Amino acid sequence: MIVDCGLYRDGKRSDETLSLGEAYDRAGGSDSFVWVGLHDPSPEEFDDVARQFHLHELAVEDAIKAHQRAKLEIYGDSLFVVLKPARYDDDAEEVALGDIMLFVGERFVVTVRHGELGPLGSVRERLENDPALLARGPIAVLYAVLDRVVDDYLPIATDLDRDVEQVEEDVFSADGGNPTERIYRLKRQVLEFHRATAGLIEPLDLLVRNRVPVGTGPLAEYLRDVQDHARRVDQQVDAHRDLLTSVLQANLAQVGIRQNEDARRISAWVAIAAVPTLVAGIYGMNFDQMPELDWPWGYPLALLLMAGICVGLYVGFRRNGWL
Amino acid sequence: MIVDCGLYRDGKRSDETLSLGEAYDRAGGSDSFVWVGLHDPSPEEFDDVARQFHLHELAVEDAIKAHQRAKLEIYGDSLFVVLKPARYDDDAEEVALGDIMLFVGERFVVTVRHGELGPLGSVRERLENDPALLARGPIAVLYAVLDRVVDDYLPIATDLDRDVEQVEEDVFSADGGNPTERIYRLKRQVLEFHRATAGLIEPLDLLVRNRVPVGTGPLAEYLRDVQDHARRVDQQVDAHRDLLTSVLQANLAQVGIRQNEDARRISAWVAIAAVPTLVAGIYGMNFDQMPELDWPWGYPLALLLMAGICVGLYVGFRRNGWL
Amino acid sequence: MIVDCGLYRDGKRSDETLSLGEAYDRAGGSDSFVWVGLHDPSPEEFDDVARQFHLHELAVEDAIKAHQRAKLEIYGDSLFVVLKPARYDDDAEEVALGDIMLFVGERFVVTVRHGELGPLGSVRERLENDPALLARGPIAVLYAVLDRVVDDYLPIATDLDRDVEQVEEDVFSADGGNPTERIYRLKRQVLEFHRATAGLIEPLDLLVRNRVPVGTGPLAEYLRDVQDHARRVDQQVDAHRDLLTSVLQANLAQVGIRQNEDARRISAWVAIAAVPTLVAGIYGMNFDQMPELDWPWGYPLALLLMAGICVGLYVGFRRNGWL
Amino acid sequence: MIVDCGLYRDGKRSDETLSLGEAYDRAGGSDSFVWVGLHDPSPEEFDDVARQFHLHELAVEDAIKAHQRAKLEIYGDSLFVVLKPARYDDDAEEVALGDIMLFVGERFVVTVRHGELGPLGSVRERLENDPALLARGPIAVLYAVLDRVVDDYLPIATDLDRDVEQVEEDVFSADGGNPTERIYRLKRQVLEFHRATAGLIEPLDLLVRNRVPVGTGPLAEYLRDVQDHARRVDQQVDAHRDLLTSVLQANLAQVGIRQNEDARRISAWVAIAAVPTLVAGIYGMNFDQMPELDWPWGYPLALLLMAGICVGLYVGFRRNGWL
Amino acid sequence: MIVDCGLYRDGKRSDETLSLGEAYDRAGGSDSFVWVGLHDPSPEEFDDVARQFHLHELAVEDAIKAHQRAKLEIYGDSLFVVLKPARYDDDAEEVALGDIMLFVGERFVVTVRHGELGPLGSVRERLENDPALLARGPIAVLYAVLDRVVDDYLPIATDLDRDVEQVEEDVFSADGGNPTERIYRLKRQVLEFHRATAGLIEPLDLLVRNRVPVGTGPLAEYLRDVQDHARRVDQQVDAHRDLLTSVLQANLAQVGIRQNEDARRISAWVAIAAVPTLVAGIYGMNFDQMPELDWPWGYPLALLLMAGICVGLYVGFRRNGWL
Q1: E269 vs C270: CA distance, rounded Å
Q2: Partners of chain C (3+ Cβ pairs below 8 A)
Q3: Which residues of chain B neighbour A296 with C-beta distances below 8 Å?
């Protein structure tokens, strides 16, 4: 679906509603460009766009299908960029990755979004409010999209941080339940998220060092700033991976220790039951001469003895920490 | 066995049935080439081919034996490429790797297949239906084979993905049985598959950067696309390795926790049996004066007491989760 | 908040109290520079400074927010450096990281501190007492700050060292309690500290090799010395990571072994109780002819037998190490 | 001990029996070279050789002592190569490494073997039967030795493969015994073998790229073939390491699971014994009125009850898999 | 403390006893140099030396303090080298690292030793007996010290090898005690030793490739030999790390298995006690008609039955390996 198609001249949007063909023809001068926005385009819808802007067949093929990896490819004198916008659903503890593709040429930019994720609408709005930036042409659109996608990574890293801390608490709290599955699921999410962030740094490097056919001009420093943010997120994600691996191991030790505590508690109770049983066994013996048996208070005394032993053992076990 | 031997001129197959020698002689012009297809060739069968196309002795030696590693080697002005086509048998959860070798010269291409795996037949069919591609000469054949082999990797990665998810479920489900062996076997398959995919990326790099004596010309971008797919598969396989390592560790914790649960369940039943035994012991004592023994309802009351204790303990253990 | 603003000429501080604008105008000659110190600046406070010294918008944005990663960025002919001063709270076993940012130009240096951590005050004092160093201009300030920040890392590495040793003792001592959580927390701190130290080595490399627009001149060797110290700390931190991973694994084995010791101790006591119970059971049998039952000393002898068995078992278990 | 000393001209061995000195003098022309073979040479024996061929003191020192690492060193215009031939003793599951050193000059080659391992004799035989190869001079000898040493690695990799599979079976079979030690020993052997194979690839690279003073000429492709084989072995060995690490972890889980199975089996038997004991205890109580006690068939019925309970529990435990 | 100060001309030591200043003045020609040896120098003692030889302030600072990392730094046209001589105390299983610093200039060499470790005395002796080597100037001293320090690493690697083997035996022997702590301590020592060896290879590379202001001349090959030895040690140390990690994991499995064996042994004894207790309980029942009770041999037969059951169970448990 073609969401929007605008002609920009000197950073300002032309008022006319233009068809694709008209827009492209008008964008001939050096100070104007066309920005076409697509959402889940069908191959047929894309065909028209691809023909107008001479997009490379292979890039088009990638752009139609979702679930690409983050990358930057140079086709002739245009760029094809794939980004993975991310969102963290904190309740389900799941990272969802989307797909944003950009074709960046000298006088046009085509943005494609798959699925619900992707801040393209608000990026266009922001840019239309910042003509100075937009006047720098298609590279400004690329920068603005990159900036937004990477900025949206930051709160996810923070959310993961908090979840890692919660998991740590679960592991080390006394009544922790079994956090193994949660740790594992979290690690899975961190790996998933890592795919989005790690894949970005290399493409950004090409942009920062201006190794692309579309000149980055004065935006190079801004792109470096985006890369710096991506690096920061990536660093945090790496730390999360490391921590979750350690927490999984610590959890193993905690499981062992809790197992031991349970075994000792059980044994303490067994001991508390075994000793009175022995006493009962003794007074159940059939010897002819067992003086206690004849005492009038023998029976209550025996019960008292048993109760006393139980209480004594219980107190002892409390003291050495087994109960 | 020589499966097929065709002379192609301007992307179209010559109708004549030609012997090896004839085909090679006719392929003299710049717009024609010979494509010989072999299957499990015996050294004798290969001899003839090798002599006709001046294939290098060492490459021939490799081509006769299966179980090579994926590689690309330059011999004079021809290429020798080994690919590892893969198939996943989802029931046995086993990755099977085959061997496809290609000799690519200026005016010929020799394809060799070992074992059952390998889509060479359908690749030839596809190419014969695409004269424009085939007209680009032997490099087009190399591209088409690479494209197919790598495209066949994608569903395997997806299958492994699903198996990893199943294994995760097994680990974290209550009645999970023992998924240890399955996890391990899966990891083995992932490592096996990794051998096929990882070994491809480096050779593809040589092709993409056109560091080979056989010019890739306008196909360079198509080869980069194949490499991109190989990278995507490789990335997924890496993630699988990582996940399976973590799942093996999580499984260890789960085993420990299930062990503990069993130990507690056992202990609960022991306790339920031990307390009535103690009561029986008490009323088995031989004291002269044990008033309960003389009560007419003493015995049924004792039985009731025992039953009551059992029920009470059972209910208590249900409540604290031990049963 | 602007903490201090001084004009330095030939390494000596000018006596006059100058406003930002005056200071900058006076610093025109080649032997003088302005040093502005800020603490937790608000965007408004920073605005003025940024305008006076033509600081780059993106660097300013970073400088206002804390929690940056250590880095060195070149903007035109000035440098933007972020450092992470650290402090170790030995009681809480927590590493706290701060933020120090420096803008280093030809004729000015702006230092920014976030939070409480950061030795900027004492660095200025030290420099004002060393006019020879200060006469080398803004790069001398950068060196002095780097030197101090890195020097402050050394005692932290030593503190972590000691804590790692304590944790080792806990793991291998008989009454060790459960050091799992402490090991994990320590590993977390080491990873945190690693972020500060590892991030420094690369930026320092740019300085040492003089790949920056602000000439390091004869200070290059001093900067290499700082880098050497950073490397030493980094090496120690790496060793800590490695050791803590091993200690976590060793702890797991210790947990298992302690579990086994407890299980054996418990079983020994169970055996000590079980055998007299059996003896009591035997003499509780109702056979007509059980000669011991008629012996006058039968009962005391039976009790003695039981006690003897208990003592014998106890001694035996002490000997084989189960008790 | 000097095993053999031959003068080769145009790939054919001269018939004369020559002393070292004579051989060297005769090898003056461009088509002849001397090949001296030594076995466990004493320093004195080596002295003579070293003097004749002007071997470098340091290389000689290395050549006299066994247990070097695989390497290739350039001394002036001659090469010093150390290889580690390997043999796998399948019964002891032990990899034995030997030492072969080669000094390769323009007109001579000196081969040294330490210990029993090393196929130098049969290599000389093969070469003397292949004058075309031998005519290429000393580099042909180096190639032939490399080829043989690396070819001998292949069956070892296969043997290790089979042992890894056996170990896997042990781990996952029900009556597996304790394969921990075998896994560990195997890993040790794999690491040992890795030392031989991994150390070869880098030296071979120097040869393949012809970065050595002794021209490899048309043998470069053959040397690349040797390197390819070494890489294949190395890849397999890497896979073994990875698998053995995983198998060690899987073994841990299996140990835990077997532990649990034993614990449940034990508990089942305890339960089967505990319930009849309780029944016996009940009928051992001394209540005045226990009607069952007076029944004539009371005792056999009680025994039947106990047996019934035992059988019932046994059947139940079989069904839920505890027995 | 200045240990020694000698003037060497053409590899021979001058007989005169010279003060520092005199020595330096005399060492003007191209064939002579001064060698000053210091041990634990105080800053004051060092001052004099530093002034005479124009040593760089930062290098001096490092040289006064022990516990530096191994490194090579270039200051103007002189070198500053830090080495870590090592000694292994086999009883305490502890690696002790020392500090040797060298300042190497065109016409002087200053050697500094901290602590007891360091073979400087014997190196000087060796060199004074080898005038040919010593005539090559200060670089010969550097070579000789490096050679000795690295040669002293070799027996340590062998000692660690033996200790690793002992630890393996402990892990896999039946009565192994608990080798966890020893494994861990050994790993710590290996990491410590690794610091000494790994830090050397890079500085040696600078020397081997002659990237230093002090020409290595014909000693380059000798320095490469030292580097080869350092590499060999480093390779062994890496193997040790790998093995100890695996042994720690194997130990975990062994702990689990031994735990299980103990649990089964305990249970066997419990069973042996439980069955006679049941028999005693049966004959303790109070049924009116229990024919066995009236048999004259009833009691001895019951005892026999119990003993028989115990023996039978014991034999059975021996057979299935539980006892």
Answers
A1: 10
A2: A, E
A3: 288-289
